[in-house]
Design brief:
4 helices
Length: 94
């Protein structure tokens, strides 16, 4: 835990031009169940994770599917079969 705090302090001191980011982390909680949505507009990163009981996971999957469709993929993603493309295909096939 101490090492993480030290790393966080070092990262906070870095100028934005070293590792530019526009990172956002969103959380949806239903009771003890959790969904996390990670978006970085600079690096074009989009990811979703969730955990919980069966009924809540079913709701989270629907939300995740809608979000993946909303954010979509570019022609370049499809052509290069990027991680973003793979994530969308995986989500749509489940």
């Amino acid at each position: 835990m101490n090492e993480m705090e030290i790393r966080n302090k070092l990262i906070d001191q870095m100028p934005d031009n070293v590792i530019p980011m526009d990172f956002h982390l969103y959380e949806i909680k239903i009771g003890e169940d959790l969904m996390e949505i990670e978006v970085d507009y600079t690096w074009n990163i989009f990811g979703i994770s969730y955990s919980g009981n069966k009924s809540v996971i079913k709701r989270f999957k629907k939300i995740a599917r809608d979000l993946y469709c909303y954010y979509g993929v570019s022609e370049e993603d499809i052509k290069n079969r990027t991680k973003r493309y793979s994530s969308l295909v995986t989500e749509l096939s489940s």
